[in-house]
Amino acid sequence: MFKKSVVMLLALLIGGCTTRAGHSLPYDAWSLRFFSPDYMEVWIETADVVDIHEYVFRGKGSGVPAIGYPRALSKGIPPEFRGKPGGWHENPRGKGKRVIGAALPRLIYVRWQSLAEPQTYEAYIEIPESARITMLKGERAFCGADGKWITDYRKLLIVGLAPGGIAKVWLGAPCLKSTEVTRVQGTINPEGPYRGQTNGEYYFLSDESKAYIYKFGIPYGSW
């Protein structure tokens, strides 16, 4: 089943095009978001979506995902490392894009550079039917931002990317805690960064993350 899905995705990516699909959702679009553990920086080369109608939506993730440490405006190496890269955040949110025009997701393909190692990985993430059912269910939620009770939907598909090629997925909502969906072991992409177009050169790793990894190492096995 997995091999069949991979072959189908590749065929669609080669011969298909991004098309608005007719769909019936209780909201206008769901979002694909990404994050990485503290100091374990990542560069996403691409993220593509196949929905349940087999439409392909390409380029729905790229660049630097959300990360706690190093902070966005931090410079140099801090006197104290406050981030905790081991394990996952209790309620991840990530950052990313809305997948406008898509029906519920069936498959996510993501290719990324794990800058902490460095290594290039790719993963095919099959979204289970149970997750799609959850995405259609409204839940009563209290939103602290405006102090109101609303009907909220888990329309945020959040992917955590960690060293070793680990990709873990949650469903989130603006006013609900994120819930776990699945965990995938990605594979090394033998072409290397940018499909071999940069002679093995990776996106840069910050000095702060370099210093953390030099001092404490990478907590493999915690994700």
Describe what this molecule looks like in 3D.
- This protein is mostly beta strands and 223 residues long.
- The protein has one domain.
- Helix content is 14%, strand content 37%.
- It is built from three helices and twelve strands, in the order H-E-E-E-E-E-E-H-E-E-E-E-E-E-H.
- It has helices at 2-15, 129-135, 207-216, and strands at residues 29-35, 42-51, 56-57, 95-100, 105-114, 119-126, 138-143, 148-153, 156-162, 166-173, 176-185, 187-188.
- The strands form three sheets. It has a five-stranded mixed β-sheet, covered by helices on one side. Strands 3-2-5-6-12 form a five-stranded antiparallel β-sheet, with helices on one face. Strands 7-8 form a two-stranded antiparallel ribbon.
- It is globular.
- The model is unreliable at 1-22 (pLDDT under 50).
- It holds the Pfam family DUF2931.
- Keywords: Signal.
- Residues 1-21 form the signal peptide.
- This is DUF2931 family protein.
Summarize the structure.
The protein is mainly beta. Helices cover 14% and strands 37% of the residues.
Helical fraction equals: 10-25%
Overall 3D shape: globular
Q: What's the rounded overall pLDDT mean?
A: 90
What composes the largest sheet? Answer: 5 strands, mixed
Defining traits:
single chain; 223 residues; mainly beta; five-stranded mixed beta sheet; five-stranded antiparallel beta sheet; 12 strands; 14% helix; globular; disordered N terminus; signal; DUF2931 family protein
